[in-house]
User: What shape does this take?
Amino acid sequence: MSTQNSSAVTINLARKGDSLWAEAFRRLIRNRAAVMGMAIIFMLIVLAVGAPFIAPRSFSDQTLLDVNKVPTWVPTIFTSMKPYARYSADYPIGADYVGRDIFSRIVFGSRISLTVAIIGPLVSLLIGVIFGSVSGYLGGRVDNIMMRIVDILYAFPQILFIILLMAFFRSTFAKPEPGTFSYAISQLDAALGGVLFIYVGIGLTAWETMARLSRGQVLSVREKEYVEAARTIGAKDMSIMFRHIMPNIIGPLIVAESLSIPGYISLEAFLSFIGLGVNPPTPSWGSMIADGSQVIRTYPNQAIFPALALAITMFAFNFLGDGLRDALDPRLKGTS
Assistant: This one.
């Protein structure tokens, strides 16, 4: 009995010594939906990184003799294709309207969506947290001016604002003179496949909500006892912010940003769908859905498979975001 009691005490002491992040991680891995989301995201990362080795062909290779060809199993699912289907076993899920391998383009298209899923939150956290934290900590007139700036930016509808930005950037940098700054920017955008201005558009609009959340979190903790104690011993404002305030507010901010990642992915897909996204032939799931929608009655595989890839990715990030919310703040479990 004494041995069992001592071992139980040891286990309890070990658990009491665990950090809040360790407890949150344990709650996260017990969430099956979150674990499934992480597994899907990991597979997508492997696809994106290993795209040149996983994809059977390059995303830009065209074989005009194989236009709209499909493997034999596709018409068994989309039976309306059977009367006019042209078969080829060379394409796992078919070829598009110019003879490009749809599967290869989906694999390479994962790079665009995952990059946006990384760039969007990083920009939002970097700018929004700094802006909102400074506003909330300083308070007074500085807080009032900084929040009015955010309110002005909020006055513009986000999607319309980004569409106008994309149209402006594309027209401004369309035919720049060699040797100019505009030419260098256009070359960089071309090298990135046309996603540079998407990053700029998301970066200019993604941080406002995070700034407001950060300000609210800082206002809720800046008068706490541990912050007041740090002030009384002579800690500087920078030290108080990064050593005492930031560790106590970063959890809810990460949760909020993780839940917004599907919005960034869908925004990029929407911009590509309407022709303001990536430059052809760079593949994006949004542009592939747009191309496939033109022939969705006759060749539904060209639109449905990219749409499935987009939907699965957004579901995975949603599952992970919900799991992070439940893990980092169990009081919010089951709430929306």
Q: What stands out?
A: The CA atoms of residues 121 and 257 lie 6 Å apart.
